Predict the structure.
Amino acid sequence: MRRYGKHTDEDDIRSRPNRKGNRPRTNIRPKHEDAAEGMVLTVDRGRLTCLVEDRTVLAMKARELGRKAAVVGDRVALVGDMSGTKDTLARIVRIEKRTSVLRRTADDDDPYERVVVANADQLAIVTALADPEPRPRLIDRCLVAAFDGGLTPLLVLTKSDLAPPDELLELYGDLDIPHVVTSRAELESGAAIERVAEHLAGKATAFVGHSGVGKTTLVNALVPADRRRLTGHVNAVTGRGRHTTTSALALPLAGSDGWVIDTPGLRSFGLAHIDPSRVILAFPDLEPGTVDCPRACSHDEPDCALDAWVAEGHADPARLYSLRRLLATRERREGD
């Protein structure tokens, strides 16, 4: 066995070759200062379609991002081939800080949250007034997710020719949520589209709703260039619609600088990830009253300071009722 002394020469040292032929690992990551800016339009089986300037580019996520995933609406930095031509592939090397996130879980017992859309300004909650019947608990859950994620909610009520909107609007009147009521005839004539588009101009709006409420029909009317024009039908027995949207997709709003983000039809909207302390931020008239609340207050318990705050006349009691109804929606199923 050969032994080396204190004065070994480099030629005397045997080095093992790197069988894989790759470079040694390092914690130093490239900054990609020359990367192009883009926006994720849709995600399909690990491939992301991004808008870079005026063209669409197909990309994949760089390994250095680890498990961090890009979603529709994300602003990203890309390198590689960004010509947008067939059979080319760019690489997403950075995901910029998000201004808002719409998140959900499969159900209230699921610890894994899914980011549906990033950087949207508002959430359009599409609900039919009949065929299928409205689901207020699902609306409540969408509202909680919007308030928690930093999105402004917008109620879009369809099929007003089948049922009046008054009762449902009264339920949410104290929340001061903007709304648009449409009928099937107005959708066909285009009159309803103009009213909806007024709320979308200059904003990125994510559309959600359970199947059969007319969400995809509405999106197709707002974005005529959209290729996904197939609409579903409502099952007469179950009252449920057939899914016509299988993945989120961002589309430019016709005649405006706004964006319409279509999402798959919802069966449920889990809220396991929701922090109740963030929901109160959507109630600026009630938030100051939480200063004297006990630590980790659920705002629906005997020691909650909001009762005294409202009793002293600082806020409308109906607003406190609305807040508590939304916070309690985690304990209720959508169909209750």
